[in-house]
C-alpha cells in the first residue's frame, strides 16, 4: 500500500462516529487516533476501528525516558505506522522512544511534536518562553533529529525552516490544516492544504474540517485533491 499523504484526526469518544468516519475515508486516508478516542476505547478500540487502514497513534508521550520507552513498547502491538512524543521531553527521552519503536516487529515510526499548532508567540511568552515559535520549532527539530526520530510534527508555517534545519530524510507531518474559509477553531498557526503541500509537507493531518462536515468522505476527498 502507498503510505497515505492524508490522515484524518478521529477525535471522538463516540465509537460509532469513529467507525462511520473510518468507513467514509477508507482507501485514501489513514486514521489518526489520539487521546480522546484512546482514553475511551483503548487498544481494542484502535484495532477495531482501524481495520486494515494505516494508523497514526497520536498519544504525544511526554515523560521520563524509561516510562516513554515502556509506553512505546506497549503501543507496538497496535501496529501503528506512526506514534508521537513531545520533543520538549528531551533528547534522551526521544532516543529511548526511537530505540523501543525500532525494535518492534514491524518497527514503528516516531514523530516528535515540536510546538503545538494551537500556540502562538503570545501563548509561549505567557509560558515563560520568550523565543518566537519559529525559533523554538527550529531548535526542537534539530534536537529531535539528533535523537534519531523518523519525522517531526510542525505547523504549516515552519515547514521550510524545519526542512532546511533537518534535511530531506525526515518526514514532516503537518496539522493545523484549514481549507480556505473554514473555521480555524483553536489552531493559531494554520494554513490551507495547498499552501502546506507547496511548502513541502509530506503528510497532512486534518480533523474537524472533515469530521464535522455534513459529508466527511466528500470533505476528505476535496482536501486530498487540493493536496495533489
Ligand atoms: O501541534 C499539533 C499536534 C497535533 N495536533 C493534532 O492534530 C489534529 C488537528 O485537528 P483539527 O481538528 O484539524 O484541528 C488534532 O488531533 C490534534 O491533536 C495538532 O493539531 N497540533
From TrEMBL:
The keyword Cell inner membrane does not apply. Residues 5-223 form the Orotidine 5'-phosphate decarboxylase domain. It is an enzyme of class 4 (lyase). It catalyses: orotidine 5'-phosphate + H(+) = UMP + CO2. Substrate binds at residues 11, 32, 58-67, 117, 178, 187, 207-208. The keyword Lipid metabolism does not apply. Belongs to the OMP decarboxylase family. Type 1 subfamily. Catalyzes the decarboxylation of orotidine 5'-monophosphate (OMP) to uridine 5'-monophosphate (UMP). This is Orotidine 5'-phosphate decarboxylase. It comes from Limimonas halophila. The gene is pyrF.
Amino acid at each position: 500500500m502507498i503510505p497515505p499523504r492524508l490522515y484524518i484526526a478521529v477525535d471522538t469518544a463516540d465509537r460509532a462516529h469513529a467507525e462511520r468516519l473510518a468507513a467514509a475515508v477508507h482507501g485514501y486516508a489513514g486514521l489518526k487516533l489520539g487521546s480522546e478516542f484512546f482514553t475511551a476505547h483503548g487498544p481494542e478500540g484502535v484495532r477495531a476501528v482501524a481495520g486494515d487502514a494505516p494508523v497514526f497513534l497520536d498519544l504525544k508521550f511526554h515523560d521520563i525516558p524509561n516510562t516513554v520507552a515502556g509506553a512505546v513498547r506497549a503501543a507496538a502491538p497496535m501496529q501503528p505506522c506512526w506514534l508521537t512524543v513531545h520533543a520538549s521531553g528531551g533528547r534522551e527521552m526521544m532516543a529511548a522512544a526511537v530505540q523501543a519503536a525500532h525494535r518492534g516487529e514491524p518497527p514503528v515510526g516516531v514523530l516528535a511534536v515540536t510546538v503545538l499548532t494551537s500556540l502562538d508567540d503570545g501563548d509561549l511568552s505567557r509560558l515563560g518562553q520568550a523565543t518566537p515559535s519559529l525559533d523554538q520549532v527550529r531548535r526542537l527539530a534539530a534536537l529531535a533529529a539528533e535523537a534519531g526520530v523518523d519525522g517531526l510534527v510542525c505547523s504549516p508555517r515552519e515547514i521550510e525552516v524545519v526542512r532546511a534545519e533537518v534535511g530531506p530524510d525526515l518526514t514532516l507531518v503537518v496539522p493545523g490544516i484549514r481549507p480556505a474559509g473554514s473555521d480555524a477553531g483553536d489552531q493559531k498557526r494554520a494554513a490551507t492544504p495547498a499552501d502546506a503541500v507547496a511548502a513541502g509537507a509530506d503528510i497532512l493531518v486534518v480533523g474537524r474540517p472533515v469530521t464535522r462536515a455534513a459529508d466527511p468522505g466528500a470533505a476528505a476527498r476535496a482536501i486530498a485533491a487540493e493536496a495533489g
